[in-house]
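Hi R.,

Here's the chain you asked about this morning:
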Amino acid sequence: MRLAQILPATMVGLILFFLAFPIVVVAIASFSSATYLTFPPPAFGLRWYEAYFSNPDWLKPTWVSIWVACAVVVLATFLGTLAALGIARLPKGMRVVAAGLILSPLIVPGIVVAIGIYYAYSRYGLVGTPIAMVLAHTCLAVPFVVTSVTASLSGIDPRLEQAALSLGATPGATFFQVTLPLIQPGVLVGALFAFITSFDELIVALFISGTGAVTLPRRMWDDLRFQIDPTIAAVSTLTIVLTAALMGAAHLLRKRAEQNRMATSSAAP
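And the predicted structure, written out as tokens:
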């Protein structure tokens, strides 16, 4: 019996170690004092973090990525929330078709999506512009918002909206005073995933970023191709920390949404 308990835990531990080991190696290498990328480091220091924060060639793509990701959050959250509300009110057959079309960017291989976006944007001269990056990343981020908001909507008792409407509230007032507060955690989770999707996206950026909208992942890709600078380990570590923090925030918001859903269900007659 004891072996049956220890063996699964050991296997899970080995799998987690296998998955996390490359991240640990990169994080340790980012504190190396060597002039080249090596592991284990001969000594430790913050040399490559200082090199990142003092180098405009790294800071400019970082600000481009942040600007694009923030714009994507606004657009994707707005469009994704509206799409989720619309899908929830469609008949079941049409709901499946509409959801499949909106979620198609998650199903189609990324390289296929990138090629399609490149050919579409090249006709209108958008390749190499920040606007192109915002629009392309919005297409990739909207499905995450739709999925998150749809999950929140599924836990709402429709009688709450009907009660508000029957008491004289307008559809707009019902949405902002009843529906939106209930789905707010799902909207925020979708916004966080939209930011992560845009900030970490590489494949589409390789096709349409050009020289005028180089994002941080694209800059990291170019650095790996043409030179192996330990600065990339520091950048990778900062990106991992940011992504982990946002994922943790999304997890907390999901727990809050579940608590709200349970409280609403228990309060409903």
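The radius of gyration is 23 Å.

Let me know if you need anything else.
M.
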